[in-house]
Design a protein that fits this description.
Elements (H helix, E strand, L loop, with lengths): L1 H6 L1 H28 L3 H29 L1 H21 L3 H29 L5 H20 L11 H19 L15 H7 L1 H27 L4 H28 L2 H22 L4 H15 L2 H11 L6 H30 L4 H20 L23 H5 L18
Helix pairs in contact: 2-3, 2-5, 2-6, 2-7, 2-9, 3-4, 3-5, 3-9, 3-14, 4-5, 4-7, 6-10, 8-9, 9-10, 9-13, 9-14, 9-15, 10-11, 10-12, 11-12, 11-13, 11-15
């Protein structure tokens, strides 16, 4: 086991630097934009642009990797990300930022898929669980660590943009300097979204709505914090608290869903997230401590929804279809994250910063209502017939699905998509 983990140490180190840069740059842009007084609608388009580029990257990057190879593709993608991080510190203009953010999303998808395919190539059935857990932990701590760097510098200067560029360059070194053989070319399978909807309507509708809520908060949470008068350190803490609270909640919520109809668990968690959002919108807590408490409750409920929805879909699918089903849901989630910031920006501009939680409230309320409605239309599987909940962690691209221990049941198909199907 130790030998297997040591063999992927360089890749995991590169992953850490990549997600440190993602956490820093992803939070820095909306905070700097709010500092410059840019319209909330424009800042919301940063998230829309990134998510659009990311979805396209999941669809098209495998073709680029297949054409030029893993090492060259990774170097090219990482170079683009680093250049854009520096450019956004120089070209302080929202239109440029929106355009460049799409390229960043595309390139992040490419770099993540290459790292994940490399890890998957090194993983054995014995080490897969440990490698997957380490990868999930590193992505989590990388994003949070990057976010917590924001208060260490002045967001009104280019310094933090330069730090983000350095982190992205450091992410390039481990894979570029590695002497290990490149993994096999990325393969593609078709994802049948209509068939997936027939298999689990709740999962499909719920995942899109989860993406809308998470996309809105993930992009505009920092803008909300700035307009609500929070300091840079409080904003970074707020965004990090939601991630940690969701990570802590996933396992206990998943265990409950093994014993209770998962649709009821989805409905209950969504109701808690909706109530938290409504509380934020109506009462608008100005003090940092109560605000963070409510945000932690919101994050615990909202960020536990995705894995339970995936598990519910897989309950009604064959075990060998895990990659195909989860890959389709990941694509739907990406579509939701495109919609969320697009809706959230204008709503916040019209109603005020706390209206961000009006958007999340509406999305979570719809999830809860639809889950209850569907529970009346189809009987739940008996507990003994369900697969045990497996926490998928913070999946980044369809390639990360193959790294999951559950993918060992798959017949070898690859989760990346072709022609958007």
């Amino acid at each position: 086991m130790r030998k297997n983990l040591l063999s992927v140490f360089a890749l995991l180190l590169g992953t850490l630097f990549l997600f440190l840069g993602n956490g820093l740059h992803g939070l820095l842009l909306p905070m700097r934009g709010a500092h410059e007084g840019y319209a909330t609608t424009l800042l919301g388009l940063l998230g829309t642009s990134w998510a659009s580029g990311f979805v396209l990257g999941c669809l098209l990057a495998p073709k680029i990797v297949k054409r030029i190879g893993h090492v060259r593709a990774f170097s090219g993608f990482a170079s683009l990300i680093a250049i854009i991080a520096l450019l956004t510190g120089i070209l302080v203009d929202p239109i440029w930022w929106v355009a460049l953010r799409a390229v960043t999303g595309f390139s992040i998808a490419g770099t993540s898929m290459i790292i994940e395919s490399w890890l998957n190539e090194r993983a054995t059935n014995e080490s897969r669980g440990a490698i997957f857990s380490l990868y999930v932990a590193i992505t989590l701590f990388g994003v949070v660590g990057g976010q917590m760097m924001v208060p260490l510098g002045d967001i009104g200067t280019p310094i933090l943009f330069m730090v983000a560029g350095i982190l992205y360059c450091l992410a390039m070194l481990p894979t570029t300097l590695s002497t290990a053989a490149s993994p096999q070319p990325l393969k593609q399978v078709r994802l049948d979204i209509p068939a997936l909807f027939r298999t689990s309507p709740v999962a499909c509708v719920g995942i899109v709505l989860i993406g809308i809520a998470n996309g809105a908060f993930g992009t505009l949470g920092a803008v909300f914090g700035a307009e609500a008068g929070l300091t840079a350190s409080s904003i970074a803490l707020m965004m990090s608290v939601t991630i940690f609270a969701g990570a802590v909640m996933q396992l206990p919520a998943g265990r409950v869903s093994d014993r209770v109809d998962r649709r009821y668990v989805l409905a209950a968690l969504s109701a808690v997230a909706a109530a938290s959002g409504l509380f934020m919108f109506v009462l608008q807590p100005a003090s940092v401590t109560p605000l963070l408490i409510v945000i932690a409750l919101y994050g615990a409920a909202a960020n536990a929804l995705y894995p339970i929805a995936v598990s519910h879909a897989n309950d009604f699918a064959s075990p060998e279809d895990f990659v195909k089903v989860s890959g389709g849901l990941l694509l739907l989630y990406g579509i939701g994250t495109i919609i969320g910031p697009t809706l959230g920006g204008p709503v916040m501009s019209t109603v005020g910063p706390y209206a961000l939680f009006l958007v999340t409230f509406a999305a979570h309320l719809l999830i809860s209502a639809y889950a209850i409605f569907r529970s009346r239309r189809r009987a739940a599987l008996p507990a003994v017939a369900r697969e045990a909940f497996t926490n998928p962690g913070t999946l980044t691209t369809p390639e990360s699905l193959r790294l999951s221990p559950r993918a060992s049941q798959d017949t070898g198909s690859h989760p990346t998509t072709e022609d958007g199907k």
